[in-house]
Amino acid sequence: MTSQLVALCFDANDPLGLARFWAGFLGWEMTDDPHEGITLLPNDDTGFRIRCLPTEEKKTEPNQIHFDMTSNHADQERTVERALALGARHIDVGQLPEEGHVVLADPEGNEFCVIPPGNNFLADCGFIGALASDGSQEVGYFWSKALDWPLVWDQDEETAIRSPHGGPKITWGGPPVRPKTGKNRMHFDLAPPADGDQRAEVDRLVSLGATRIDIGQHGVGHVVLADPDGNEFCVLPPSAA
Predict the structure, then answer these.
(1) Which stretches does the entry tag as region Disordered (predicted)?
(2) Domain count, the chain
(3) Is 208 left (phi over 0), alpha (psi -120 to 50) or beta?
(4) Nearest in space to 83 (alpha carbons), one of 111, 118, 63, 51
(5) How crowded is residue 204: how many other Cβ atoms within 10 Å of its Cβ?
(6) What domain range includes position 134?
(7) Rounded CA gap, 139 and 224, in Å?
(8) Which CATH number characterizes residue 107's domain?
(9) Are 149 and 159 spatial neighbours (Cβ–Cβ below 8 Å)?
C-alpha cells in the first residue's frame, strides 16, 4: 500500500504562537508533538494534521504552498475579520481586485487566501478548500502516483489531485515555476501504513522521481526526499501513520 499524507508541517520561529493562530482559525485541537513542536488535529475530513516545528530561520520568500480557504454565502468578510482578530494581516502579492479573493498572512508571514463564495472548483470542499502550490505538471503527476490520489484537474499544465475520501485538493499552477532558492518553509510528512515498510516505500517514491537529500537530519527515524521540483518531504516510520 502507498503512504498516507499524515501532516503538513510549518517551520515556525514561535511554534506555539503559530499553532494557536491556526487552531483558533480552523477550530482544531492542539496537542504536543513528539518532535518538539505542536500538532493540530483535524475535526473534519481534512485527513491530515498540521504540525508547527521550531526553527531559527526567518521567512524570506513566498511559500511554495498556501491555503485557499473557502467561504459560504456572505461569510468571506466575517472569515477575514476573524483571521485578522487572531493575528493575521492583509498582504499584497499582486492580486487584482476583480479576482475576488482576499490575501492574508498568518503571524509568521505564511500566505493564505480567503476565496469568495460561488467558486465552482472548491464547491464541494470544506473550509480548507485547497493546498495551492507553485509547481510543474510533472510534480502533480508525481504526487498523484505517490499518494494514489486521482487527478481531478489536468489542463494547460495545471494539475490538481484529491483524496478519494474527500478533504482539500492539492493544486499546482504550472509554469512559470518560481526558482527554488532554499529549503521550503512548509513540507509534507508521509508514512506507510502500520503494516508497511519504510524502506520499500522510499524505494517506490524514488522510482517515481523523488530523490534522497541531506538537510542535516541525523539520528532521526524519518527519511528526507525531494519531489521532481525539489520540494522537500519526509517519509516517517510506519508507526507514525
Answers:
(1) 163-183
(2) 1
(3) alpha
(4) 111
(5) 17
(6) 65-189
(7) 17
(8) 3.10.180.10
(9) no
Instruction: Indicate the angle between helix axes 198-208 and 137-147, nearest 10 degrees.
Output: 150
Cell of 234: 519526509
160: left (phi over 0), alpha (psi -120 to 50) or beta: beta
pLDDT digits (tens, 9 = 90+) for 6-48: 999 999 999 999 999 999 999 999 998 666 789 999 999 999 9
Q: Report how far residue 139's alpha carbon sits from residue 188's, in angstroms, rounded to the nearest whole number.
A: 14
Q: Identify the DSSP state of 194.
A: T
Radius of gyration of the chain, Cα coordinates, nearest whole angstrom = 17
pTM of the model as a whole: 0.94
Rounded Cα distance, 3 and 219, in Å: 22
The amino acid occupying position 12 is: A
Q: Is 230 exposed, middle or buried (0-12, 13-18, 19+ CB in 10 A)?
A: middle
DSSP string, 72-131: -TTHHHHHHHHHHHHT-EE--SS--GGG--EEEE-TT--EEEEPPTT-GGGTT--SEEEE
